[in-house]
Amino acid sequence: MNKKDIFLVSAFRENSVWKQILGICSSLAVTNLMMNSLIMGLGVIFALALSNMTISLIRSYTPRSIRMMVQTLIIASYVIIVDIFLKANLPVVSKQLGPYVGLIITNCILMGRAEAFAAKNTPIDSFIDGIGAGVGYTLVLLAISFVRELFGFGTLFGFGIFGAWWTKWSIMVMAPSAFFILAMLIWIINNRYYKMKG
Amino acid sequence: MEISSFVLFWAAIFTSNILLTNFLGMCSYLSVSKEIESSFGLGVAVAFVLTITSGLNWIVYHLILVPLGLVYLQFIVFIIVIAAFVQLLELLVERYTPALYYTLGIFLPLITVNCAIFGVSLFMVIRDYSFVQSMAFGAGSGIGWLLAILMLAGIRAKLKERLVPIGLQGAGISLIITGIMALAFIGFSGIVNVQ
């Protein structure tokens, strides 16, 4: 498989969120604003790509019995970097994301890619796979937060789209809307998939 | 923060349910909820581990990490405490109560990666809870999670014979049910407010 295919497969065809239903916790919690989703997505891309590469680099030296623990510790180290970076440079966003930055560690996507891809492939391929899976995850986050921010606040990335006449839909700011929108997204994508398959 | 532990306990179950308002522990929630029995087993295990680890992590954080100035290591340390506790629990349960091991044992490895457990420890640090508050919040969150997964498993059992659009089967319909459950739980939100 060439590099471009690795990227495309892990970003779209085998997208972790809508295909494998992984990493749902954080994709629902941070999607009330597009800015938060984007920064969360970038954090995940960073941690995922680098942890994938590191895990792949040491894959032949890691004893099988403790590899889960090793993988978790590697992932945790990169997530700590993301957390410290956000606290120092973007304190407001860091405060809004709250515990969800730390929760990247238990995001099943990272563990899933480490087990499914990085444990068997070369470091460069694993790095690209990590970026692909991260981009796929970010796109889903942005899609959900697009709907939630547009109807819930009447803005996109903080810029006013609708004028003052817009009545904000308070349900879009609250938790249930995230469940409904993700379900709709999965429904639309599955239907397209079945149609393509015929 | 000056909220009584008793209020915090009930708030964690109903008004700020760990799953329905904070979206934590979704992965195992969606995949295990196919059967009521295994949902109950996992839920009980989560509730127990959550209560104990939130206490343990409070001790580790306030008595070890803060005095030594190692607060930035909290993520790694919390994960290790949780993993070690789950491993220990598995050994003990297997050794002393084999019957319980066969019903609950298979769920224990799943718990280490359940984000609800780790998330509660992080909330405890961010919201600056006291020891008793942390235990109460942990226990309430665990029971809230158990309640949520039991409700979903019950509804999904009823849904088995119904016709669901093919694109919605599995995760899709579970998410819609969860959304409706979350809407229902908003009804409780006027009672107490805990951020």
How are the SSEs placed, and which strands pair?
The complex is a heterodimer of chains A (198) and B (195).
Chain A: H1 3-13, H2 24-29, H3 34-57, H4 67-89, H5 91-97, H6 108-118, H7 123-153, E1 155-156, E2 159-160, H8 170-173, H9 175-197
Antiparallel strand pairs in A: 1-2
Chain B: H1 5-13, H2 26-32, H3 36-68, H4 74-96, H5 98-104, H6 108-112, H7 115-126, H8 131-159, H9 171-186
Helix pairs in contact in B: 1-8, 3-4, 3-7, 3-8, 4-5, 4-7, 7-8, 8-9
Descriptive account of the structure:
The complex is a heterodimer of chains A (198) and B (195). Chain A contains 9 helices and 2 strands. In chain A, helix 3 packs antiparallel against helix 4. Chain A has a two-stranded antiparallel ribbon. In chain A, a hairpin with a 2-residue loop joins strand 1 and strand 2. By secondary structure, chain A is mostly helical. Chain A has one domain. Chain B is an all-alpha fold. Chain B starts with a helix and ends in a 9-residue tail after the last helix. Chain B has one domain. The radius of gyration of chain B is 17 Å and the shape is globular. Helices cover 72% and strands 0% of the residues of chain B. Chain B contains 9 helices and no strands. In chain B, helix 3 packs across helix 4. The interface between A and B is large, with 43 and 41 residues.
Low-pLDDT stretches of chain B: none
Helical amount of chain B: over 70%
Q: How many angstroms separate the termini of chain B?
A: 10 Å
Total of DSSP H or I helical runs spanning 4+ residues of chain B: 9
Number of helices of chain A: 9
Structure summary, number of beta strands of chain A: 2
Coarse morphology of chain B:
globular
> What radius of gyration of chain A results from the CA coordinates?
18 Å
- Characterize the largest beta sheet of chain B: strand count, sense, and whether it forms a barrel: none
Largest sheet of chain A: 2 strands, antiparallel
The count of strands of chain B amounts to 0
Question: How many domains is the backbone of chain A divided into?
Answer: 1
Task: Provide the β-strand percentage band of chain A.
Answer: under 5%
Major sheet strand order of chain A: 1-2
Q: Structural class of the secondary structure composition of chain A?
A: mainly alpha
